[in-house]
Amino acid sequence: MEQVKSFYETPSPAGLTGIKAWLLTHDHKRLALMYLWAVFFWLVLAVFLGMALRLELMFIGETIMGPEVYNSFFTLHGVIMIFLFVIPAIPAIFGNFFLPIQIGADDVFFPRLNLFSWYLYMIGGLVAVISLFTGDGFADTGWTFYVPFSVSTETNVSLTVTAAFILGMSSLLTGLNFVTTIHRMRGKGMGWLQIPLFTWSLYATAWVQILATPVISITLVLVVIERFLNIGLFDPARGGDPLLYQHLFWMYSHPAVYIMILPAMGIISEIIPVFSRKAIFGYKGIIISSMAIAVAGSLVWAHHMYTSGMSDVSVFVFSLLTFLVAIPTAVKVFSWISTMYKGSILMTPPLLMALIFIYLFSVGGLTGLVLGAAGTDIHVHDTTFVVAHFHFVMFGGTGFAFFAGLHYWWPKMFGLMYNFKRAYISAVLAAIGFIFHYIPMFILGLQGMPRRYFDYLPQFETGNFLAGFGGILMVAGILLMFINLWVSFRVRETATADPWGGTTLEWSVPSPPPLHNFVNEPEVLEYPYDFSGVLARAAKDKG
Amino acid sequence: MSEHESEHILSYGFLAQILGGLVVLTGVTVGVSYIDWGFLNVPIALFVASSKATLVLLFFMHIKFEGMVIKVSFISTMLFLAIMISFTFWDVAFR
Amino acid sequence: METAIDKTGVKIGMWIFLYSEIILFGGLFVLYAVYFHTFPEDFAEGGKELNRIFGTANTLVLLISSFTVAASITAVQRRKKGQAIGFLIFSLLCGLAFLVNKYFEWGAKFHHDLYPNSDLLLDSEPGFNIFFGLYYTITGLHGLHVIIGMVLLSISLGLVIRDKVTDQRYAMLENSGLYWHLVDLIWIYVFPLFYLVL
Fold first, then answer.
1. Are A180 and C126 inside 8 Å of each other by CB?
2. Touching check for B60 and chain C: CB below 8 Å?
3. Which residue, A121, A143, A168, A126, is CA-closest to A49?
């Protein structure tokens, strides 16, 4: 089994060499790695933009940038983080790489479409870059592109919006591919209840991608139409209703939040049982909660609009529905914790990051309830409280799950193991920095500091200084983490096929996997998290 | 993939009957639009349109002969669309 | 993809794509629903400006073309290549007729100073402006889909002629057909909502 050539050595389609073997590949694994490098690039860029924003705010008054630059920077930070990192990262990288393997397939259903999605992703990114340097500067609207400002501002909104449109297409086609793959390409013995939870979470995500993304497409098209033809669909002076823009925008962008978090929850659901050496608590419960989040997440969009002037009835209804989402989310958190209870915990960097995820995500989720309640939301709306909340969920949640997944699957993707000690240090450093970074923002928000301003009143100085300090620590932690992973290419400590003792199919194939993923027909477990085999093997090795 | 592939061949005659039905319904919808039914105007127009859409979906688009996956997912899509429109009215209808 | 093609899987993929198209138009129908609720009189007023004859003719053209596209699949399944080609060419002509019709219809509106941002619309009731705004947006986007559908049908036609589409393998034709039916489906709703509102 060990002498099988890995997918690095076998181009697909056969005969391609050099760079072509990558740029024209149909292999889901190569595409996943191509996404990985592109996502890395955008992540690092957006992290530094965020850092620059934080440095500007560290001291009162104008320090390193003025208001216009600040506005463009936070828009750019948001657009890149949302459309080029958080939404695509986990499905496009880990989903592409591991979804087919986890269900015992040799590729996704539409391999060429998969390549096309990657090109759309790259083109979308390119258009965003072009919009930086053409026209009258990058959009300064924030990533939400709210009308009427987005229609009237002189900056280059049309091109930025086009970039978001193309990226949405890419995400949609990936979702289409995944759903079809899961329906049609499951291996022998792989029924619906043998599918690992990561793949299940991608299935739920894919449906949200398919059904919600077109709404943002049409909304962004409308912004462009308004800018060029000036129809007045959102212009109150001519009968339009700007609130409808917000409805349409959040009809996508709230479900998009679940596009971002569901795959992250899937990663955690993989990592926790493996390092607890124990079957996951509530396998079916987690599946049902994934689907429930996907459904309930589509019903709550207007909770972003409590203060916008919409009707009181809808504030009431959407607030009520918002609380419903907390239930399936809590089911997941309790299931993870119950899995660890009386498990035989094996501490590793992925598990540590997963634990950090659970903590940070829970804080993010609970502060979400503060915002979901209409009364308290009116107090903290559009303050840094909101910023802290969604960074806890998006970065403390999805970001750390991304790091956890990266460390969990790194040995499988590259066949190389990284240094554990540095990984631990970087994770702890990033987490401590994270807490210093965002906790002060909760307090500042409660005290009334608005978001999206480049300057503030003197009483907010201490908190902002602390947040900036935490930001520096956090960025240092992230950089150390990436350097550590990079060093693994130099040290070349090879990883075995199954360094962790996992039960899902990706651990049954060599690291890195061969072109068609499986050498022999994979043996599918009746229950995907049955650790009796792993434990028996470990006992045999010992004595 | 053992389930039977839908090699359902629809005859020209049958398809023409469907077309006939669609043309008749188009006539109906144009015809009734000349009469003022009060608040029923829109429901009637939408009902006729939906009947036409159902014919197209079931027979021209073969949904009747597809497996559960397509049927269920199509209905879910329609439900999502219904939610998009109706939930917006929590706001609009109560301003 | 070396093994036999999984036709059902290809069809599932195509349907999922169609769902996304439905929701894309769905966003516009949300706008329509809300604005119709807000400005019922203005919408009725606007609807009277549209030509029912044009609208009905276009509806019939699309319905007939949908029929011929469905029939072309039957022809391919029965290995009647000539008939299939005939049906497809006729469908394409229908699509063309639809676009020509639309061109004259829009032209007439422009002639009456009813186009986005025109002086007449700027001065008229807000609801009237919104009605025509939506009219141009929805029919414009729909027209774009007609063009895309025609491109897909032309490609399928080429494949039928070159015997690349056969009774064993006609996924491309079937999927183009599905797309064409979708275009028809959307028009089925656009027609009463714009031309027949009272």
1. no
2. yes
3. A143
